[in-house]
Amino acid sequence: MKNEPLCRAPCPIARSLGRIGDSWSMMILRDAFSGFTRFDEFQKSANVAPNILSRRLKELVEDGLLEKVCYSSTPARYEYHLTERGRDFRPVILALAEWGNRHFAPEGRQIQLVEKETQRLVHAVMVDSETGQPLTPEKYSMVPGPAASPVIQYRHDYLQRKRAGDSTQKFMPQQYLDEHHEPQE
After folding, report:
1. What is the mean pLDDT of residues 36-52?
2. Residue 79: beta bridge partners?
């Protein structure tokens, strides 16, 4: 179910989770990447109640991750296809699979990524597209972007001071918002 406050937050992670943070939506997207397109396929694969599935499919269409395509006019029947926005979500699904296999699969891998031609096992990692280097926390960090809201900048500045050893400060985003008259998102 969509989380409207998160959808309106200044943080892109919050905005994304507001739309896709629901486990059923993630399962639908997992299945769409696998090739499922029809309501009954999604319902049986994820073992989700039809009313929940209907609502999640509607929201994924509204948010532009899936498109509803008519495949039969009498009676009207639809398939759900990934859009460009939906296909761009694939690295997140691959990262979740890799993380889940590493930390929550004591019995071993249930699913795995392989190179199609050779069936060679592949371990998904995020890399810098320019250098090919893995995005390790030792070398890369998140910083406010050019459109960062004041609260995003406050959060970053607070953490910079904390890393520098300032243990006297308190994280008080609401007080900051009140002082700067920015509506909380």
Report:
1. 96
2. 38, 69
